[in-house]
TrEMBL record:
Entry GO MF terms: ADP binding; ATP binding
Native species: Manihot esculenta
InterPro entries, A to Z: AAA+_ATPase, Apaf_helical, At4g27190-like_LRR, LRR_dom_sf, NB-ARC, P-loop_NTPase, Plant_NBS-LRR, WH-like_DNA-bd_sf
Any Pfam family hit: NB-ARC
Name listed for the protein in its UniProt record: AAA+ ATPase domain-containing protein
Amino acid sequence: MDVVTCIAGKIGELLVEPIGRQIGHFIHYTSNTVKLQEQVKILEGVRDDLQVSVDAAKRNGEVIRKEVQNWISMVDGILSEANKLLGKASKVRFHNLASRYQLSRKAEEKTMEIEKQKNEGKFDRVSNPAPPPPLLFPSQEDIVIFKSRERQVEEIMEALKDNKINFIGIYGMGGVGKTTLVKEVVKRAQEDMLFPSIAMVVVSQTIDVKKIQDHIAESLGLKLDEVNEQNRVSRLLARLKEENKVLIILDDIWARLDLATVGIPLGHDHGGCKIIVTTRRKQVCDTMVDTRSETAKVIPINILSEKESWVLLKKNAGAEIESLTLNSFAKDILRECGGLPIALVTVGRAMRGRDPDEWQEAVRELRKSQPETIEGMDEDVYRCLQFSYTYLKDKKAKKVFKLCCLFPEDFNIPIEDLDARRSAHSIIKNLKDSFLLLGSDEEGCVKMHDVVRDVALSMASDYFRWCQKLEDWPDMEEMKRYTGISIMQNEVSQFPDAWDCPNLKILLMHIEKTRLREEAIYIPATVLTGMKALQVFDRRDSSRNRFLAHFLRSLELGFSQLTNLRTLMLQYYYIVDTTPIGELKMLEILSLKNCTFRKPFNTIGKLTNLRLLDVEFSSPHGDSSSKFPINAMSTLSRLEELYFLSFDMLRPTDFENPYNFYRINAFLSQVEGSNYLGLCGEFGGGSNITVSSLVCMKPLMPRTNFLYLDSLEELKNINPCLLLGGLDALKILVIVNCPSFAYLINAEEFLGRYALLPELERLCFQDLDTFKALCNGELPPGTSLSMRKLKYLAFFRCPELLNIFTLPNPQQEFEQLQVPEEKGMKNIAKGPTEQLQLPKLQIVCINGCQKLRVIFPASIAQGLEQLKELELEDCDELEAIVAEREEEEKRIDKVVFSQLIRIRLYKLHNLKAFCMDSLTLKWPFLEELSVDSCPKMKTFAASDGNQITPKLKEIKINANYIKFNGTNLNAIMKYHNKEKVRTVLSF
């Protein structure tokens, strides 16, 4: 009986408890919903705070951690469910007991879930550092890889794949093409995904171990903050041994480099590290490793054959050299160039378009030239480069060319630092076209080939002096004769009291912070008294440290001696007194970037010849009176360019908000007479800038060439800018991270007759979460968005973008289309595609567009008259590149890609064919076809007889190079799908 009673009691307890909870759901209905509301607000706050950190990390290029992404996604779902629940609770009636019970129970459960997620949303860090960017080079489209070089490229590639070989030495005389060859190897190694990490360092004549270490570490995503040399070596060595595969390229080595002192593993302990070295002398390789061992391979790079030399000369001088009037002279020049690519290219470009008399004179000039002796350089190279310089028609171009040799080897030379600012870009283009300057991977910069620089330094040695790795000052008597002196990347510890250089016009002083000192370098004011002819003084510090305050305090007093100074550049300095700078009446360019001012720059108004003022990232010291005065700038009527970080740099008049635009309005009123003023700056704190405040920029809008809109939260389209001033002169438009931006143009706001953006050449959209299309409807009659000068159109991370063109739309004439990772885009164009024409389009790069099924409808494809490059990657649903649409009224039988040279198809898992319809396809100039990771592509076109590719000689399919002699492409695709072959095949 006791047992039964006990069991019954226990059952009663179990029954009462659920009943109590159920009654509690009725009783606590209101408190449960209120508590849920409170917890929703708290969780929303936690999520929003985390999102701010995530957005900041994204702007810094960092990678958001997966757990953070998952938490935000999960919380968004929970909050959505909770808000729906609260919405239902607000509508339920009192007498609806069943609904109140259900909602109260769910509210309690959801509250508990929110409390749990709230605690889990605390992360030590939201992101990881971004992986190092891939090694990229400026476009080498003018470079020709000849058969002799192709064999050497293949030999190097085989060595890279050979597990026994860890050292590859490439040697040959200066100008023979070693670096060009290595860049081609890097390109192929990246395409074949041989190495996750590739580092390339230009070593040059003066070995800088720290620079080499930093470049390699950067490619690995490693920061070497240690000062101690041995610690740096140990950390780099340990990291390189951890890497499964890494390729290190040491370019242009002149003497033995002890790899152990850098931290590069070699021999049996190399791990997955492979090394490529380029040098002018084989002996350098011999001193670094045992080149006879099976772990090393040394490859000589010889001069080009006569046939290859003729092809290269013809490419650069023009086909006219085949004519009877020029042929004999061209062959004489060919012999003088000695089979060296750099000589053939520079001379060929110098002679392009010249008449027979000039060709005859060129032969005489080359033969009588007396070359200087430079180590590792063939005399023919010197003669040819000297000739190319002599044949420059523009005297300013010659001046800029010699000025470039004052910068260190492999230096990214800022174009804006060069002379003749107004015509600098045309001069640079002239020099690049002549191959005397090269492009750079850093925007706004150029480089000089090491061989060209050696020749330039030799030619300018009578009046230019470049000093390297100085620790003590050079002989003063010797320095007197120079008109230009460069003391960049040096470690001098003190300067002379006086410096007698009466002819000196250019002085570049970029002093390194050395391991031997942390204190300021004292430079007495008297050092400037002996250089009264000085026109350019560039004194910038690389340490980014304010420790040079004492130096500036005394040096400023010496500025009064420099009455001929045209350009003054100071960086990272504490400027005690700006008065002496205001006395430099001839000054045209003044750059005080990253400087701190002790006193207001009230004397700036005296600089009436000033054309450029750069105070970007500069700041006042002390109270607000140290800021730039507006009124003092009223006389700067010749000012063309003004660079600053924020409006806080301009002293306020009546306003306290540091980001309002009224200050610049006041400033504009002071320079109303200016004919050239352009304004560049980054206006921080986007949330503080309203679209309505743009009205004060109205005076600038009609003459704005470049407009960059970033983090404007209210901006929905560019109509405010258009209505303010028309943007009739705008050439470049970039819109980034504007969360409300939906359309480029809102058609509903235009009532009059407008030609919108008539001069626009480049248009870029990036990180726009709500951007849908260029225009939200049809523009009214008389208003057009033709953009006939548009050459470049790009979209980056615009998830709501469904199509690029909303038709009907006029003919588009842009040259380059870039669309990466637009996962929601389904079509290139919306509407009847017969109306869309792209006759100027030359380059198309599309990747990561997961919903795109067809790239070009046949009606668009037949009008791609100028298309040269087509690159498609990682588009999961893509089935065909060209396809007919059922709604197209006009039947299309043939599509001719008359200029297409290169097609690259990669990771297109559903691609079935280039075209599935029975169209005749012609590619008369197609030379390169690469198909990789496209498993369903078993045919290239619908029928066997409709592909015409007369110039295609080789095809790359999944890393297999397949020779092609005219057999239709379908046969190759079918054969490849049956069997994967790793050797060269012939058809």
